[in-house]
Amino acid sequence: MAEVEVARDGAVQTITLNRPDKLNAFTLGVHEDLQAALEEARDPAVRAVVITGAGRGFSAGQDLTAFGESGDVAAMLRATYHVNVLAIRSLEKPVLAAVNGVCAGAGLSLACACDIRLASDAAFFVPGFVGIGLIPDSGGSFFIQRLLGTPRAFEWMTSNRRLTAAEAHAWGLVSEVVEADAFAARVTERAAELAAAPTRAIAMTKRLFDEAATSTLEEQLEREAEAQAEAARTDDFREGVAAFGEKRAPEFRGR
Ligand code: T3D
């Protein structure tokens, strides 16, 4: 069995972390396979990506039995987590974290690096890092602070408190909570909606929001102007306007 499974359904690519007996904890092998899966997701035929976990876990973060395998923690982070987090952010399509279950440590960081998070009501969220005397890495200090704001993020990430899916929703960590029995169907439905959307405009929105974190208003207005000029040249824009005029649903092609 592959430690990361990849499946394609139309324009949706689903990446499943697949070490269910270890709650999909990360090993070097998982990192390498995830890297290959994210590379495959660059295919223009893929218009939405889902990352999820097999069994009752999304991911419990770093496999603690393989911690510090290479002896150089910083080098390991740069060569593994950093590559995959940056690959998610640079993918020009939406990435949906389907948080099916336990989500802890670097698994939490991975979910937060994605563009959208849906949670099963069986999921729960644990900082993990502070429980073993570490700091939130693999983008955790970046994404979680932005999602929750500094006071709440700091209190949570330094407490190691378990957050239920309902609490995660109330905090804005996930956009939706779905009953476990209906979760897979809802993820399929949501991913199909994303794959049928105007992919170029979504990619540019993703890039703009990332850039806004470090831009001045003037810089951001200029970026918007350039991106909008590009969006206005797409077939999807023409189709959107035509569909509006003809009072029908648009059929976006992602180009
Ligand atoms: O150099 C570097 O690597 C730095 C990078 C660090 C990044 C990080 O992610 S640090 C944080 C690492 N993660 C954790 O500290 C979380 C550890 N796990 C837990 O605290 C708990 O397992 C959970 C709260 C996540 C879930 O608890 P529970 O009771 O639902 O499940 P469990 O019984 O603890 O775990 C089930 C199995 O998964 C169990 O194996 P067993 O005994 O049945 O054979 C457990 O050992 C295994 N497992 C869970 N988490 C990990 C793990 N095995 C290896 N590594 C794990 N992280």
Features:
11 helices, 2-enoyl-CoA Hydratase, Chain A, domain 1, 10 strands, about 260 residues, alpha/beta, globular, four-stranded mixed β-sheet, Lyase 2-enoyl-coa Hydratase, Chain  A, domain 2, six-stranded mixed β-sheet, about 15% strand, 2 domains, binds ligand T3D
Q: What is the share of helical residues?
A: 40-55%
List SSEs in N-to-C order. Answer: EEHEEHHEEHEEHHEHEHHHH
CATH topology of the largest domain: 2-enoyl-CoA Hydratase, Chain A, domain 1
Mean pLDDT: 97
Bound molecules: ligand T3D
Task: Please give the count of helices.
Answer: 11
> Based on the structure given, which CATH architecture of the largest domain is correct?
Alpha-Beta Complex
Measured between the Cα atoms of the first and last residue, the distance is 36 Å
Describe the protein in words.
By secondary structure, this protein is an alpha/beta fold. It folds into 2 domains: 4-195, 2-enoyl-CoA Hydratase, Chain A, domain 1 (Alpha-Beta Complex); 199-245, Lyase 2-enoyl-coa Hydratase, Chain  A, domain 2 (Orthogonal Bundle), CATH 1.10.12. The chain has helices at residues 28-40, 73-79, 81-90, 106-113, 140-148, 150-157, 165-171, 180-195, 199-212, 217-231, 235-245; strands spanning 4-9, 12-17, 48-53, 57-59, 95-99, 102-104, 116-120, 124-126, 163-164, 176-178. It has a 6-stranded mixed beta sheet, with helices on both faces. Helix 1 runs parallel beside helix 3 (81-90), helix 4 (106-113) crosses helix 5 (140-148) and helix 5 packs across helix 6. The longest helix has 16 residues, at 180-195. The relative contact order is 0.11. The mean pLDDT is 97.
